[in-house]
Amino acid sequence: MGKYLVIIDETEEARKALRFAMRWAVASGGSVQILAIVQPQNFNAFGGVQATIEQEARDRAEAIATSAAGNVYSESGKMPNIAVKVGDGDRIVREYLAEHPDVVALVLGAAADGPPGPLVSHFSAHIGGLPCPLVILPGRLPIEELDRIAGS
């Protein structure tokens, strides 16, 4: 019984990673943890405008994570844990893993075309420093194949 961490956003690769982690958790008696990351804003607006922009980004990330959690619950019957954090993705993931030693795998999806994605690139280059295994799902792997592998 372990916890599988998935970083969620609006991409297809994140949805595949979530599905894989959910199927793997069901097969192993584990659970899923969903982490949504809000990137810090790179510009400074007037105080009220800046706060509104940041709150809208956080609200959007929370909505994406909540929707993903609902999908996991409807398919598996288990409600995943959800966290929404603001900051740089690689730093946030490292901190989250340090705070949650019960995570047995970080599950990421690579893009089907072009660069694999910033988190995949970062963590595949720094895998030796992770406290858990890193699972990277190929973007072109069909859903049926993901389900088959996760249920094995």
UniProtKB/TrEMBL annotation:
CDD domains according to UniProt: USP-like
Return the InterPro entries for the record: UspA
- UspA domain: which residues? 3-137
Q: What is this protein called?
A: Universal stress protein
**Organism expressing this protein natively:** Alteriqipengyuania lutimaris
